[in-house]
Amino acid sequence: MFNNNPIGMLDTGVGGLTVLKEALKQLPNETFYYLGDTERCPYGPRPVKQIKEFTWDMVNYLVDKGVKMIVIACNTATAVALEDIRKELTIPVVGVIYPGARAAIKSTKNNRVGVIGTIGTINSEQYELAINTKSLKTDVFGLACPKFVPVVESMEYHSPIAKKVVHNTLKPLKEKNVDTLVLGCTHYPLLREFIQSEMGEDVILIDSGAETVSDVSMLLDYYNISAEPTNETRTHQFYMTGSKRMFEEILNDWLTVEKYGIHRVSITKGNE
Amino acid sequence: MFNNNPIGMLDTGVGGLTVLKEALKQLPNETFYYLGDTERCPYGPRPVKQIKEFTWDMVNYLVDKGVKMIVIACNTATAVALEDIRKELTIPVVGVIYPGARAAIKSTKNNRVGVIGTIGTINSEQYELAINTKSLKTDVFGLACPKFVPVVESMEYHSPIAKKVVHNTLKPLKEKNVDTLVLGCTHYPLLREFIQSEMGEDVILIDSGAETVSDVSMLLDYYNISAEPTNETRTHQFYMTGSKRMFEEILNDWLTVEKYGIHRVSITKGNE
C-alpha cells in the first residue's frame, strides 16, 4: 500500500522551489525530484506550441526517472499543457491554477480578485475560467508582469530594482479595488514582501503553489500511493538545464534541504 | 466539459448536513442529493459486516439516481467501507477521514492530536493510520463517544443534557494535553460549542466534514465534472429512511436551503 517512488516537480526555473518548500513541510516522508529548465527560462513570452513542447520535454524526463506523480509547479506550463499531459499519462498530474483559483474564491469577500502572472498565463485566461466555473459572481482582473521572472532568476529579488519593478508593474491593478490577489506564477512568492507592501496590507495574497501541495497530499491519499513513514531524512534530487551554481545559490537562500543531489542535464531527446 | 448531474452525499442520519452546509457555501453551482439512513441510525455500535452492507445500500440508492460523485459524509462508513466502494465504482468517491487527518497534521504544534468518534470509527484506528502515514512523530489519542450521536439525532444538541454528556465523556481526553482535536464524526459539529468549552479555547477543533468539501471541490476540477455556472438556485433533494418531520426540523435549524424536495424512502433492495 506504500509507494516510495519520488514525486516529480517541474518548473521553467527556480519558481517551483516555492512549491517544494511547502511540500517538504507538509509531506516530510516523500522524496522529490525537481527539474528546472533554467536554460530555456522564461517560458512566459514564448508561443503556445513551444511551451507545450518544452513542458513535454520536462515531463518525459521525470517519467523516465520513475516518478509516481507529476507536479507542474509552473503556471504557464499548467495553463498551456496540463490537460494534454493529464490525458496522456497514467500517473496523477497536478497543476497550480485550480488550487489557486479555489483559494481565491474562499478568500474574497468583495468578489473582486486580481491575478498576476506571465504573459502566457494571463493570455490563457485560465484563472478567470477556473474561478468563474465555481463562482460566476466573482470578477477577475488579470495583469501580466513579464519583468518579475527575470528579476527572480537573476537573483535580484531582494534588491531595490525588484522593488521598483513591482511598484511600476502593479500600478494598473491598484485601482481595481481587489481584496485578494493570486500570485499566479510560482516565482512571485520570492517577491512577496514588495508585492504586499505595494498592494496594501489588507489585500490577501494567494500563493498558488502552496495551495497546490494540498492537492498533492490529497491525491497521495486518494490513490493510496504515500511513501512509507520514516524517521530518516529523504534524499532529494535537483536537475537543471542551466547553471548549477546559480540554482544552488537560490536553493540555499530560499529553503533548507538536508540531503540532496544536484545535476546539470539535457532534457531534449537523445541528448542526455 | 460541464456535468450537471447531482453530487450524492450520504450519512447514517443528520450528521452529514454539517458537510452539506459547507458544500453549499463553497460549491454554489452544484446540486446535492442527500441520503440519511435515519431509520437504522446509529451505525457506530454495529458489527463491521453490517455497516458495510448498510453503506452499500445507501451508495447503490444514490448511484441509481445518477450522481456523478459520492461523498461518504460519515466517519463510521468511511472507516469501514470507503476502500471497497472506491474500488467498485467508476465515479469518484470521497470519505471524511483523510481530509480531517491532513488538517490535523497542518494544525498541531505539539504533535499531540485527539480524535473523537463513534465506537466503529475509533476501533478502526483509521485516523491514527491516516495521520501516521503522513507524520510518524504525531501522537494520536482516540476516544469513542457513543452517546453523542443519539443526543444529536434526538434534537437534544442545544440542551443541558448535551452539555453534561459532553462533559462526562471528554474527561479522559483532557489530561492528554492535545492542541488539536478532530471531530471525527459529522454529527459532532452540532455539539461544537460544548466541546470547545470543555476542551478549552486553545484547542483547535478540526471539522472533518468541512475539510472534506475541499477534496470534493478539488476532484470536480481534477475530473473536469463541475456543474455549469448559473445564477439560478439549484434544487436539492433529501432522502431519508426515517421520519421526515424530525429530519426537516434539524435541517431548518442547522442550515438554509432555498429550494428542496424531501422524501421518505426505502433503500433496501426491491423495497422502493
From TrEMBL, chains A, B:
<comment type="pathway">
    <text>Cell wall biogenesis; peptidoglycan biosynthesis.</text>
</comment>
<feature type="binding site">
    <location>
        <begin position="75"/>
        <end position="76"/>
    </location>
    <ligand>
        <name>substrate</name>
    </ligand>
</feature>
<dbReference type="GO" id="GO:0042802">
    <property type="term" value="F:identical protein binding"/>
</dbReference>
<feature type="binding site">
    <location>
        <begin position="186"/>
        <end position="187"/>
    </location>
    <ligand>
        <name>substrate</name>
    </ligand>
</feature>
<dbReference type="GO" id="GO:0009252">
    <property type="term" value="P:peptidoglycan biosynthetic process"/>
</dbReference>
<keyword id="KW-0961">Cell wall biogenesis/degradation</keyword>
<dbReference type="GO" id="GO:0008360">
    <property type="term" value="P:regulation of cell shape"/>
</dbReference>
<dbReference type="Pfam" id="PF01177">
    <property type="entry name" value="Asp_Glu_race"/>
</dbReference>
<protein>
    <recommendedName>
        <fullName>Glutamate racemase</fullName>
        <ecNumber>5.1.1.3</ecNumber>
    </recommendedName>
</protein>
<keyword id="KW-0573">Peptidoglycan synthesis</keyword>
<dbReference type="InterPro" id="IPR001920">
    <property type="entry name" value="Asp/Glu_race"/>
</dbReference>
<dbReference type="InterPro" id="IPR015942">
    <property type="entry name" value="Asp/Glu/hydantoin_racemase"/>
</dbReference>
<feature type="active site" description="Proton donor/acceptor">
    <location>
        <position position="74"/>
    </location>
</feature>
<dbReference type="GO" id="GO:0008881">
    <property type="term" value="F:glutamate racemase activity"/>
</dbReference>
<dbReference type="InterPro" id="IPR018187">
    <property type="entry name" value="Asp/Glu_racemase_AS_1"/>
</dbReference>
<comment type="similarity">
    <text>Belongs to the aspartate/glutamate racemases family.</text>
</comment>
<keyword id="KW-0413">Isomerase</keyword>
<feature type="active site" description="Proton donor/acceptor">
    <location>
        <position position="185"/>
    </location>
</feature>
<feature type="binding site">
    <location>
        <begin position="43"/>
        <end position="44"/>
    </location>
    <ligand>
        <name>substrate</name>
    </ligand>
</feature>
<comment type="function">
    <text>Provides the (R)-glutamate required for cell wall biosynthesis.</text>
</comment>
<dbReference type="InterPro" id="IPR033134">
    <property type="entry name" value="Asp/Glu_racemase_AS_2"/>
</dbReference>
<dbReference type="GO" id="GO:0071555">
    <property type="term" value="P:cell wall organization"/>
</dbReference>
<dbReference type="InterPro" id="IPR004391">
    <property type="entry name" value="Glu_race"/>
</dbReference>
<keyword id="KW-0133">Cell shape</keyword>
